[in-house]
Amino acid sequence: MKGVIAICLKEVVVSKFGVPKWNEIMTASGLNPNMAILASVDLEDAVVMNVVKNSCRILNLKLEQLADYFGDHWMNSYALKMYKPYYGTNSTAKDFIIKLSEIHTKVTNNIPNARPPKFAYDWKDENTLILTYISTRGLIDFVVGLAKGVGKYYHQKLSIRKISLTQVEIIFH
Ligand code: HEM
Fold this sequence. Notes:
- The chain is of the alpha+beta class.
- The protein folds into 2 domains: 3-61; 89-172, H-NOX domain, CATH 3.90.1520.
- The protein has 7 helices and 4 strands.
- It starts with a helix and ends with a strand.
- 26% of the residues are buried.
- Protoporphyrin IX containing FE binds at residues 1-2, 4-5, 79, 83, 86, 100, 103-104, 107-108, 114-117, 135, 137, 139, 142-143, 146-147, 150.
């Protein structure tokens, strides 16, 4: 998984819980706390998932809570600095969500080994979307947290509900 994900996770942990907690998580994961994480480098999925698991344990957070912190920070701080053009001008949360597959393909186009997630869309009605998450990584809780971050960025009320390990219902109000 791309280094950007690990850098964003580090920023979340450090800003909310402090550097010593991040160091503890890295050491528990068998990694050097001072290791430089490069944005474009490809980290093994298992390594990143282990850091996520140890973060939950050491910070006493449920995966859903960590994923919500991550989604908020990614959408409203980290990606905003790195990938602002993808947010569009005069766009809505719906416009953005519809472009998710395209955004992921574009931002990972030049990265060797990148395997971005894909998304499929089924509209139950004009404002109710069943978003299907297509990935081998099983990070549905992050999809929920990120979608919440999208609602916050566009100042739009969204009702978001995980319905299975691959599907989320989003109601755009
Ligand atoms: C401007 C906004 C966004 C950008 C630039 C972006 C970019 C990226 C990048 C570069 C990766 C790493 C891919 C890889 O290592 O192969 C990634 C992973 C991921 N993204 Fe996004 N993303 C954005 C918003 C979102 C949103 C809103 C969602 C969900 C609603 C989402 C869901 C995910 C998930 C779940 C992963 C983990 C990889 C996986 O599960 O296969 N992203 N994204």
